[in-house]
Structure formats: C-alpha cells, structure tokens
Amino acid sequence: MTRFVLALQWSGRHSALDPAGPQAARIDSLWQFLWIVSAVVLAAVVAALLYASLHRRRHAEPEQAGAGTRTVVIGAVGLTVVILLVFLGLNFGTGRALTIPPDGAVQVRITGKQWWWEVTYPGNPPSYQVTTANELHVPVGEPVVVELGSSDVIHSFWPPDLVGKRDLIPGETASIWFQADRAGEYRAQCAEYCGHQHAKMALLIVAESRDSFDRWLARQRDSARTPADSLARRGQEVFLASSCVMCHTIRGTPAGSRIGPDLTHLASRRTIAAGTLPNTRGHLAGWILDPQRIKPGSRMPANPLAAGDLEALLAYLETLQ
C-alpha cells in the first residue's frame, strides 16, 4: 500500500505519522488502511446519494423500485459487515504485535509523578541500578521493555514516533515495549490529564548506538565526585545546608531524599523541569529561584538564595556530569 505521509519533521516536533520503530510502523500502517478504506466508503455513499437525488426514476413501478432498494441495502449491509470484520482482525493483529516483546530486551522502569518522570535501569547486582529523571536512553535497533507505574494519579506514557499510549495507574503495574530503528531524540508526553502541569510533563528519549548507550549507563552508575574548584565546593555546602536535601538525592553526598528527581548527573541532561526548559545555566538559575513562575503548581518551592550562594550552587550543579 502506498504510504500517505503528512509527518511533521521539523526540529522539536514529533508525529505518530513519522514512525521510527516497528511498533509505530504497525500502528501507522493500520491507520493508513483504516482511513483509506473509510475515505472510499464515504466517497461511495456520497456518490450514491448524488445519483439518487439527480436520477430519480419518477415513473418506476413501486414494486420494482422497492426490490431494487432492498437489494442495494442488503448488499451495503453485507459489505459493511465484511469491512468491520477486516478492521477487527487487523486491530487484534496489531495489538498482539505491540504486546509480546522479543527476548533479550533492555529493561527499564518508569514512574510517573506530578509532573515529571523517574527512570530506573535495574542492576545486577543492585548496586548497578541507575536512577535518572525525564530522560530515557536506549540502544538503536534493540527492543526495550518499559515497566510503568505511578506514585500519585493516572498518567499516560506516549512516545508517538515509537509506540502507542499506555496508562500508568496508581497501585498497578503495566508494561510496554518499543524499538527505535534510527538514532535521534524523540519526545514522549503524558497523554492523560494529570493535574495543573500536565502539559509540561515530557520525557526525552535518546536513541543511540549500543556503545554510546553502554558508556552513558556506566557513567550514570558513578557517584558524584567531590568538586575540585573552591567555588563549586562552596556550592556543595550551599546545597547541603539548604532545603534542597529534603527532596533530592546526589549519590556520594548525605543528600538522599527521593521526593524529587535524582540530581547525581543533572548536568548531563538536556532539559530541566521535565522538558520545560533547556538545561542551561540561566534557565537553571531561574528554576531554582522561582519555579512557580516557570511551572505553576509544581512541587518544588522557591529558593531565595543570595547572589553569591546562587553562583556557587550553579557552579556545583554544573559539575554533576
């Protein structure tokens, strides 16, 4: 079947009509078939209506007209049943293909929170476990099984280029699998209204080569290093003496709370505030000082730091690679 692509391919925009993996391609093919058949049916119905209105047989015998009408109606109903059964079979086939993952898949756990994503790569031994936030790295061309859960309300995980939606329900565990066939960055979005900042709850999926993925995962297992720079060391003191330690973890320091995102490798992430802002020094400063202006309703409180303390804190956070 000839593909009819209306994909939005400009930077920062992703579309279910531009599949980058086998599951998204199956969904796209099903959609292509459904809309083409539906368009043909619509055209046939409109044509029949036009024909009936423009070519009425004014002098036809009632019995003949009734018999002809019954034949057309019976044929149309039969064709409708056949089309619906074909749709049903294709839908079941696509659903089965999306449900059963192949062996040897990368395992990841994602927990939805108001309003960010906690991403965990299980480790064996457990000390190899990696926890990050709002950024999922996967190897290109390999299946990835994602275990999904929620810590508060219903969320929905949807990376349109890679696979369909799957809800995250508190107290329940769901799973989904996908595969990225080409390297790049793909946006996943919460697709279930989950509160005030639902629209600013994005997750970046980075598909890269297996070697790059392994290097990234190895770096993520490291604890934060003690800063060598005096300004950064002062920034670490500011962090540990502030309310930041009440919500965040930085491995290798006394900060070990799990309320907010793990910041051990904050500087390596591309965005902050669940895809709301690029991870730059200026945006990070604004987020620390007044997060409610940027993301009203977020769980992070304002931190009115003095200019010198803020400068030192930013210097420290930039070392968390």
Judged by helices, strands and strand pairing, the structural class is: alpha+beta
Q: Please, what is the CATH homologous superfamily of the largest domain?
A: Cupredoxins -  blue copper proteins
Question: Portion of residues in helices?
Answer: 25-40%
Strand order of the largest sheet: 3-2-1-5-8
User: Which CATH top level class of the largest domain fits?
Assistant: Mainly Beta
Question: Which fold name fills CATH's third level, the topology of the largest domain?
Answer: Immunoglobulin-like
Characterization of this structure:
The chain is of the alpha+beta class. It folds into three domains: 22-99; 106-220, Cupredoxins -  blue copper proteins (Immunoglobulin-like), CATH 2.60.40.420; 230-317, Sandwich (Immunoglobulin-like), CATH 2.60.40. It contains seven helices and twelve strands. The chain has helices spanning 22-54, 62-99, 210-221, 230-241, 281-289, 291-294, 307-317; strands spanning 106-113, 116-121, 130-133, 135-139, 144-150, 155-158, 166-168, 174-178, 184-190, 202-208, 271-272, 277-278. The strands form three sheets. The chain has a five-stranded mixed sheet with strand order 3-2-1-5-8. Helix 1 (22-54) packs antiparallel against helix 2 and helix 4 (230-241) crosses helix 7. The longest helix has 38 residues, at 62-99. It is elongated and about 95 Å long.
